[in-house]
Amino acid sequence: MSGKEKAKAKAEQITGKAVRKVANASGDRATAAKGAALESRGKAREAKEKGKDAFKR
Questions:
Q1: pLDDT of residue 26
Q2: Distance of alpha carbon 26 from alpha carbon 53, whole angstroms
Q3: How many helices (H) and strands (E) does the chain have?
Q4: How many other CB atoms are found less than 10 A from the CB of residue 40?
Q5: Sign of CA dihedral 20, 24, 28, 30
């Protein structure tokens, strides 16, 4: 897994989780959904990179 892609995946996960929690606390459901989607995209990116690493071996 390249360092750049790994960092991007973690950043998306952290940002998405923060956005989701703040939006849930304020009651903004639309923004909470966007935060959850961003977090999921980060997790999917991480899984993709781990899969690519598995095939390299």
A1: 96
A2: 40
A3: 2, 0
A4: 13
A5: positive
Task: Give CA–CA dist 51/35, Å, rounded.
Answer: 25
Contacts of 25 (CB under 8 A, 6+ apart): none
pTM tops 0.70, yes or no: yes
* Residue 1 per-residue DSSP state: -
6 confidence band (pLDDT: 50, 70, 90): confident
Dihedral in degrees, nearest 10, Cα atoms 37, 43, 48, 51: -150
In tens, the pLDDT along 18-57 reads 999 999 999 999 999 999 999 999 999 999 988 888 887 6
Token pair 């304020």 is found at 26
DSSP one-letter code for 28: -
